[in-house]
Amino acid sequence: MSEKETRDPATGKALAWGWGLLAVSLPLGLTLEALHALKVSSYLSSPMRRELWTLAHAHGNLLGILCLAFAAVGLRTLPDAASRGSVSLWLRLGAVIMPLGFFAGGILNYEGDPSLGILLVPAGAICLLYALGRAGLSAWRVAGS
Predict the structure, then answer these.
(1) Is residue 97 part of a domain?
(2) How far is residue 70's CA from residue 64's CA, in Å, rounded to a whole number?
(3) Where are the alpha helices (DSSP H) in the chain?
(4) How far, CA to CA in Å, does 101 sit from each of 24, 35, 82, 105?
(5) pLDDT digit string (tens) for 82-126?
(6) Whose CA is closest to 142, among 74, 44, 86?
(7) How many domains, the chain?
(8) How many CB atoms lie within 10 A of CB 83?
(9) What whole-number percentage of the chain has pLDDT above 90?
(10) What is the distance, to the nearest Å, from the Cα of residue 45 to the centroid of all Cα atoms in its chain?
(11) Among residues 3, 20, 5, 1, which one has the least CA distance to residue 92?
(12) Which candidate, 94, 104, 93, places its Cα nearest to that of 52?
């Protein structure tokens, strides 16, 4: 990364959040494996909890990588600082809210239904769709000019 890329606030924040998401999500996966290995009944007795927490782990990892990808190419594909800042903000919000919703949905779930925390998932998805749509439009405009 060049000096200009490391000073850009939007890509710098995406870089930090991407590494942070990976730092949380990867150990979550190891914890889930340990819960399986140790046959922890509160985890194994709820298929809904297992599925939601696995989704939290997977989405956290993938969205962390997406934040790192944005940090790597954001400055080159979105030269407008305001657009880059907006995309970075919505991307980071969605990347945290969606896995958090999956994780929260697996806490205190009952009778095969997730808890109300699952409502964060569509909110995170909307943030991500907005960020990706705005990034795509901005990159398309840059490529067309």
Answers:
(1) yes
(2) 10
(3) 3-7, 9-37, 41-44, 47-77, 81-105, 120-144
(4) 15, 20, 28, 6
(5) 999 999 999 999 999 999 999 999 998 887 789 999 999 999 999
(6) 74
(7) 1
(8) 19
(9) 78
(10) 27
(11) 20
(12) 104
Residue 2 belongs to some domain of the structure: no
Question: Is pLDDT of 5 > 70?
Answer: no
Which tokens in the block code for residue 12? Answer: 């710098």
Residues 69-94, mean pLDDT to the nearest whole number:
94
Greater model confidence, 142 or 53: 53
85 in a structural domain: yes
Q: Pick the closest to residue 52 from 145, 129, 119 (CA basis).
A: 119
Which residues, other chains included, contact 8 with Cβ-Cβ below 8 Å and sequence gap of 6+? 74, 75, 81, 84
Range of the domain at 107: 9-140
Categorize the per-residue pLDDT at 140 as very low, low, confident or very high, splitting at 50, 70 and 90: confident
Alpha-carbon distance 94 to 29, whole Å? 20
Q: Is residue 4 part of a domain?
A: no
Which tokens is 39 given? 């046959």
Rounded to 5 degrees, what are φ and ψ at 114? -70, 160
Tokens standing for residue 7? 């000073």
Take residue 29 and report the two structure tokens written for it: 């996966």
